[in-house]
Amino acid sequence: MNNSSINILVEEKKCLLKHFASKFTADPDEKEDLVQETLIRAWRSIDDLVKHPKLMSWLYVIMRNVYINRYRKARRGSEIHDTYIDLESSNTIENNKAENRFIADDIEKAMCSLSDENYQLFRLFLDGYKYHEIAAHLAMPEGTVKTRIHMLRKKLQRQLKVYRLD
């Protein structure tokens, strides 16, 4: 299939994809992002895109998965933020922003104590990427990624144990 026929197919389906996106969000920018990300992921399997008997069902599933992945990344990021940065939400009544800044600085120092490769690996994990995505990006086995992240979390927990809420 040539590029012009693929472009025509994409333009025909864009309106319906925007309708699908409105089921997930009301934000017009986020809708557009969902449509674009769906088309990018579908483009990776261009042969399936053209020959798929239930093309719109397939694209809907891709869009749903993109939305779920974004939701998980956002949730994981907010959980980390709540756990390590917003310590004032604990049972103590404390609004000392200077102390929170010291805590944030300690977390940053602990992160900077990691090697460049481990810092990059852990940063990708904190940004919400899945193990297989990190493994592909860093060209290493997924099991190695899981092990390193586990070990890095334990190391950072030891370094920051003074802030534990137990």
- How much of the sequence lies in strands comes to under 5%
Radius of gyration: 21 Å
CATH topology of the largest domain: Rna Polymerase Sigma Factor, Chain: A
Major beta sheet summary: none
Strand segment tally: 0
CATH architecture of the largest domain: Orthogonal Bundle
Alpha carbon gap, first and last residue: 61 Å
| H/E topology pattern | HHHHHHHH
**What would the average pLDDT be, to the nearest integer?**
78
Q: Which runs of at least 5 residues are low in confidence (pLDDT < 50)?
A: none
User: What overall form do the CA principal axes indicate?
Assistant: elongated
| Count of domain modules | 2
Question: Tally the helices: what do you get?
Answer: 8
Helical percentage: over 70%
The CATH homologous superfamily of the largest domain: RNA polymerase sigma factor, region 2, helix turn helix motif
What is the CATH first-level class name of the largest domain? Mainly Alpha
Topology:
Blueprint: H1 3-22, H2 28-43, H3 46-51, H4 55-84, H5 97-112, H6 116-126, H7 131-138, H8 142-159
Organism: Sphingobacterium thalpophilum
GO biological process, one term: DNA-templated transcription initiation
Protein name: RNA polymerase sigma factor
